[in-house]
User: Fold this.
Amino acid sequence: MKVTLNTDVLSTNNQAADLNRELFNNTKTLVINVMSSPGAGKTTLLEETVRELSSKYRIGVIEGDLATDRDANRVRAMGAQAVQINTNGGCHLDAKMVSKSLQQLNLEKIDILFIENVGNLVCPSGYDLGQHHKIVVLSIPEGNDKIPKYPQMFMRTELVLLNKLDLLPYMDFDVETAKKDLAAINPDSRMIPLSAKTKEGLEEWFSWIEGAYQQCLEQLK
Amino acid sequence: MKVTLNTDVLSTNNQAADLNRELFNNTKTLVINVMSSPGAGKTTLLEETVRELSSKYRIGVIEGDLATDRDANRVRAMGAQAVQINTNGGCHLDAKMVSKSLQQLNLEKIDILFIENVGNLVCPSGYDLGQHHKIVVLSIPEGNDKIPKYPQMFMRTELVLLNKLDLLPYMDFDVETAKKDLAAINPDSRMIPLSAKTKEGLEEWFSWIEGAYQQCLEQLK
Assistant:
């Protein structure tokens, strides 16, 4: 019974995700689903990303949180079109929530759309939102054991942004171990160590986005 | 339909939780359900707690993780009876998982049992495990906005351990704001700032446990 239910829930979600994807492709909007633990620094990273790229691209952000509209206000202040989804206790975004929130965005005027998922290293990994890319932000203070301990999340991502690199001197964290752990469960993924605070490593992340956008346009030709 | 299902799931869980609680009361075992985001430092805090209290009390730990038995091994090395639950993707412990894991512990020989829940600031808050107390570990690097952004978790706890106080000099975090935010949504709760690394503030946490244990014995007389 439980399995049937989960299958149904996921199948309904996948149908909505496919519709979202069709819409994103029609408007040539690159969509990136950003996931992490609470407090890994997703919003600060998106603030820096919007600040850097908004002179060149039209950026949109969908913010997912249990409560408050703080995050949408933060990225809007940096120049993004932004909409806040409140899940009211729900532990992840789903494709229908995203679909509904799209009514408040003009996709025709968005080149790159970031979807900041609810802070949670478990539930968001199973839900397709119709995005082109799934990425995970992992932060140094969370410790070296998170990749083996939350394998479902890290198996399904193509890029891990290792954030808060500025805190490395104060923590027992080994970047090479994290890279090896990621390669062991997900050999096709990539890790970019960076700090949204000091801006170290951000160039590599911005280049990744620009590459993904060009590739998206090529594929939609 | 969705509401009915959730009610059923929670009602089944509550029945199992009541049975757990009866068992804990029969063996006079104080049980504390410890919740937090991934990487807030629950296991390090429990290591220090077992190290400090195991000369005076017989300590048990149930470790909940998606994968690996790393955490059970860590607290066992400090002298606790420990059992690992792997949820294989599940985002929280439930009362039945705890009940099953109790077969591997001798409750008659445990005075204080900690249940370390899956690292997740959302899902574990709704599930009664049969514990006497629910507490949340929040860490400084997660940032000042977590209490208003994850209200369901902080509304249902009686104690927040504000961990990684040693990182305060390197972060934009205001302890007084966190205390005010907690008081606003949960006036009966208490916050203890501490650092499992430098041991600052740990005495207050140990005293809280000892007080809770004495109170538990009084109530079970």
Remarks:
- Residues 183 and 206 of chain A are 22 Å apart (CA to CA).
- Chain A has eight helices and seven strands.
